[in-house]
Design brief:
By secondary structure, the chain is of the alpha+beta class. The protein is elongated. Among the domains are: about 140 residues, Penicillin-binding protein 2a (Domain 2) (Alpha-Beta Complex); about 170 residues, 3-Layer(aba) Sandwich (Beta-lactamase). Strands 3, 4, 5, 6 and 9 form a five-stranded mixed β-sheet that branches.
């Protein structure tokens, strides 16, 4: 029974009609319930997106990309003082579903107005491709993201990504390295420690000091420019720990704009370049002779005439035309004297010592760009003679710095490192290669080279710099070029208690009027080392010793600067003071 609202009377409903009405009511209830469940599902999904996944939606599964919010930010790289060298930031990238683009020409024009790097023609090509996914631009600014979002085009979407930023730009480009656009390390520290950095976490702390890195780069760049060199390399290493304080390669590049860099700029001359280092190698051959016991400071070798062996003739750049003591051979950088000394040691002494110093293998350091030295095989007598003064064997500047550190630090060959140790009190890895006595004698001869020998341009008052010049003709396609060389200077300071080795190298410098047309290491590279030491010493709080003067050292040199008289060299060089 029902009530007629319009006529105010009751209506009688038959059983069939009541049954039909009940079925209709049940259907209505089911419809309402289904609709309510749908609304609840939508609300739950919206809550999930807003509260739990509020960041950008990931790309379609078939485009091979992964959303940045699914992995941690790549770990930062810092120098020894905590200064940022590399850091990752979250940035938006914009892409489009070209299938949904209604008017490609119009949309391309609007996007080009917002994104100066993009052209209307290129954007139109992508937007009219009909593909489900096309990049518009990676890594856009927040202002650009806002402007594009304001277009309100449903075909345009955003993806959050990581971008690697290098705050110091060129300053340590080859050492720190760089990543590709997807933040995978592809060079330098970035590549060597890719897994460690990709996992996120605490910053990777390097041994580099950006203050010294800046000093080295500035002084080296000045010399490269002055002498119109093709490039250069500079390294500062702590001889007590093996820590690399600075490592520069020129020309360099800005890793923030990797696409603009040339192969020459990305090439790391300090670790990957192989060079014949010339007379700096006399440091190692003479150390080998003294340590063998077959040669002494008072040993004499006749440098009166050029030395002929096979089809080769060995000359001196500034010949003294007389017999020379070992200190004189080193101070005057006599090729003839060094070759004759090496000849007296026998065929294996130099080769075995060079092998011990690591000159026949890659330097163990934390970058993938490491040179494999070039050396004679088989090693013959002529190779012993020429390699003794740095010809016929090519190594990287880092090889030389590592070996020189062992010569001056008391005789311990250390494993160089670019990463600060977890335990600062842990003893560095090292192997004895020469005696402490041989090391002391070599330090004194290094001191004499700078005080009054070929390395005088590296002298720094109060710091008593020791060092050795090097100049070698460039070898191109198996032939030496007469007017192209590699000039270098190997410096040590303070020489009375060595702490740092400083090396500067120039590739094919050109002589100037100020250098009388010469492009040797004493004129081109030694001043770089002197300038770096003069600026680095006070910065590191190394107190100068004013009692150490050039006049004093030159006085001590007098026994070596006149005609040979047996035994004169012993008194001045037998003590390390």
């Amino acid at each position: 029974m029902a009530f007629d609202l319009f006529h105010g009377r009751k209506l009688t409903i038959s059983g069939t009609q009541a049954q039909m009405l009940e079925q209709a009511r049940l259907r209505l209830v089911w419809v309402v319930m289904v609709m309510m469940m749908g609304y609840i599902a939508i609300i739950l999904r919206m809550g999930d997106l807003c509260l739990l996944h509020h960041k950008s939606m990931s790309l379609p599964a078939n485009n091979g990309a992964v959303a940045a919010n699914e992995k941690p930010l790549r770990a930062s790289i810092v120098d020894r003082n905590g200064n940022l060298l590399a850091v990752s930031l979250r940035m938006a990238s914009v892409y489009a579903n070209a299938k949904m683009v209604h008017d490609p020409a119009k949309l391309a024009q609007k996007l080009a107005a917002i994104l100066p790097k993009q052209t209307t023609g290129e954007l139109f090509k992508r937007l009219s491709s009909g593909k489900g996914f096309v990049w518009i631009q990676r890594f856009i600014t927040p202002k650009q993201e806002y402007a594009i979002n304001a277009l309100g085009d449903p075909a345009i979407r955003f993806q959050e990504e990581q971008r690697r930023i290098y705050p110091d730009a060129n300053l340590a480009a080859q050492v720190v390295g760089y990543t590709d656009i997807d933040s995978h390390g592809i060079a330098g520290i970035e590549k060597f420690f890719n897994k460690r950095l990709a996992a996120g976490g605490k910053p990777l702390r390097l041994t580099l000091d950006m203050r010294i890195q800046h000093i080295m780069r500035q002084d080296l760049a000045k010399s490269v420019k002055t002498f119109h060199a093709l490039g250069g390399a500079g390294i500062v290493m702590d001889v007590t720990t093996g820590e690399i304080i600075a490592m520069v390669s020129l020309p360099d590049f800005d890793p923030n704009h990797l696409g603009e860099a040339t192969n020459a700029e990305k090439f790391d001359r300090a670790t990957l370049g192989d060079y014949e280092m010339g007379s700096t190698f006399k440091t190692f051959s003479i150390a080998a002779g003294l340590d063998s016991g077959k040669v002494h400071l008072y040993s004499v070798f006749d440098a009166s005439h050029p030395l002929k062996i096979d089809q080769f003739t060995i000359h001196d750049f500034d010949a003294k035309d007389r017999p020379l003591t070992i200190p004189e051979i080193y101070i005057y950088s006599s090729n003839i004297g060094t070759a004759k000394m090496a000849q007296s040691l026998g065929p294996d002494t130099i080769e075995n010592f060079y092998r011990t110093l690591g000159f026949m293998q890659q330097v163990p350091i934390q970058v993938p760009e490491r040179a494999m030295p070039l050396y004679p095989s088989p090693w013959r007598l002529v190779n012993t003679l020429t390699a003794a003064f740095g010809h016929g064997i090519a190594v990287s500047p880092l090889h030389v710095v590592r070996a020189a550190s062992a010569i001056v630090n008391g005789g311990i060959l250390l494993k160089p490192t670019l990463v600060m140790p977890d335990d600062p009190n842990a003893a560095p890895e090292g192997t004895r290669v020469i005696s402490a006595d041989t090391s002391a004698k070599m330090r004194r001869m290094l001191e004499l080279v700078v005080a009054g020998g070929t390395g005088s341009e590296a002298w720094v008052k109060g710091y008593d710099v020791g060092g050795k010049t090097g100049t070698a003709d460039k070898n191109k396609n198996g032939k030496y070029e007469n007017h192209a060389n590699i000039s270098s200077f190997l410096g040590v300071f303070p020489i009375w208690h060595p702490r740092y080795v400083v090396l500067a190298l120039l590739d094919d410098p050109q002589g100037t009027k100020a250098t009388y047309g010469f492009s040797t290491g004493g004129f081109t590279a030694a001043p770089v080392v002197g300038d770096v030491i003069a600026r680095m010493g006070p910065l590191y709080g190394i107190q100068p010793r004013m009692d150490i003067t050039r006049k004093r050292i030159e006085k001590e040199m007098k026994p070596y600067l006149k005609e040979y008289k047996e035994g004169q060299a012993i008194a001045a060089l037998s003590t390390d003071n």
